[in-house]
Amino acid sequence: MRRLLAVMLIAVLAIVPAACGQEPEGALKVIVIGAAPKVRDPSLGPLSAPDAVLLANTAQGLVSFDAGGNIVAGLAERWNVSDDGLSYIFRLQSGTWSDGRKITAEQVARILKREIGPRSSNSLKDRFGAVEDIVAMTDRVIEISLVSPRPDLLALLAQPEMAILRNGAGSGPFRAASKGDETRLEREIESSDDEAATRQQLLLGAAPAPDAVRAFAIGQADLLLGGTYLDLPYARRVKLPRDALRFDPASGLFGLLPASAGGPFDKPQARQLLSQALDRDAYVAALGVPGLAGRATLLEPGLDGLPPPVTPAWLATAFGDRLPALQAQAARLFGNDRRAIRVALPDGPGSDLILQLLRRSWGALGFTVERVNRAAGADFVLIDEVAPSSSPSWFVRRLRCAVVPVCDSQADALMDAARQSPVPAQRYALLGQAAARIDDAQLFIPITAPVRWSLVSARIQNFAGNRYARHTLTDLEVRPSNGD
């Protein structure tokens, strides 16, 4: 009998790690919310979250982000910026492509020019409007020349959208190989002195949010990336290890964009009324994200060259206190014509919270709110985007007439003048004026900042939130230096 119990115990011990997926001494397991990651050319269009993680770690750009969102070496080992800010010179590291051929500056310059060229659908292409040329100066040196200074250029070049891909492959730091539904990532880490090189390995996979959260909760993943407001409720519903849920102090836009011209809501007064009627505090409280606050302006604090935006006085007044005046204004503007407000929202429990907010807030004005799946036929569409840099230009140009259905041509003229200005102070002033016009016409109804979250196990030592919500997979188990 004792022998039989011993055999059964051995069998159980052998099965449990496999069932729970726990590999404390094996390769790290990383899951990104979404579909299976692919190495995808960013010039073909926007990247999914899994594709962006894979691309950033297998096809580095000239520079990269470290765990804290700081700019570090990528394909370029060092760089220099001219005093006037019009020339960026990069010296490439000595390296090879995946096929063993030498990486040259001419190849890299050609790839970068294609990424921002007229035929590219790269989602960051518009951000490179100040680039005059990209040329190879020597076999390992590239110069990017600008028509006017762009302090945010390095942050843009570090984004996965500016990954350097040749023949469908990058230069690392990881090499990728398929392993069933997962991708195995490996890289060699050179050691100093006479120590042998070490190897970092991890498994990268993807799954829908409920499955990804569940896998982390039962120990089948060490790191979960790609969380947004849309799927945060899934993480709130399961029991997680202490301090596993981490939030990025993400910068960007989260709010409602007019989806079509014409109709009862295509008036600044109507949009201003709807903006003031939002109970942002209730939505922020429902999310429970530390440090998150309601927002009522296009621009946010901490952007380059501009003071913090002036918050409208009404935002400091409690929703219940400002409601009577808003109800009276709604009666003057709409009378008894209170047709449903149609809002395009993606599927997910986070959108359910948004819908509750809108129905409660706008319902108090006598409106009903209908949820639709597409922008076509909607009055407003929700946008949830992280800014790729700290420049105010991204915020205002996101609302230019070329990309949104309801816009201000005079704001566009200010954006164009800012892009052409060689004087930074003048450029920032013009961008501030464009933002003010957008706010005055309520061409965007802000709600709060974008929400980005991750699940991090105790095994992960080198993880930090950052404004770009970008997370490198290098050195995840290496404890950061304390600077001593």
Give an account of the 3D structure:
With 484 residues, this protein is an alpha+beta fold. It folds into three domains: 25-37 and 176-248 and 451-468, Periplasmic binding protein-like II (D-Maltodextrin-Binding Protein, domain 2, 3-Layer(aba) Sandwich); 60-162, Dipeptide-binding Protein, domain 1, CATH 3.90.76; 252-448, Dipeptide-binding Protein, domain 3, CATH 3.10.105.10. It contains 13 helices and 18 strands. The chain has a seven-stranded mixed sheet with strand order 8-9-10-1-11-18-12. It has a five-stranded mixed sheet with strand order 15-14-16-13-17. It has a four-stranded antiparallel sheet with strand order 4-5-7-6, with helices on one face. A hairpin with a 5-residue loop joins β4 and β5 (87-92). The protein is globular and about 80 Å long.
Going by CATH, what is the homologous superfamily of the largest domain? Dipeptide-binding Protein, Domain 3
What is the percent of helical residues? 25-40%
* Name of the top-level CATH class of the largest domain: Alpha Beta
Strand content: 15-25%
Overall number of strands: 18
CATH topology heading of the largest domain: Dipeptide-binding Protein, domain 3
Main sheet makeup: 7 strands, mixed
Q: Which CATH architecture of the largest domain is right?
A: Roll
Cα-to-Cα separation, first versus last residue: 59 Å
Please mark out the parts with pLDDT under 50 across 5 or more consecutive residues, or reply none.
Answer: 1-24
Indicate the mean pLDDT.
91
Gyration radius from CA atoms, angstroms: 25 Å
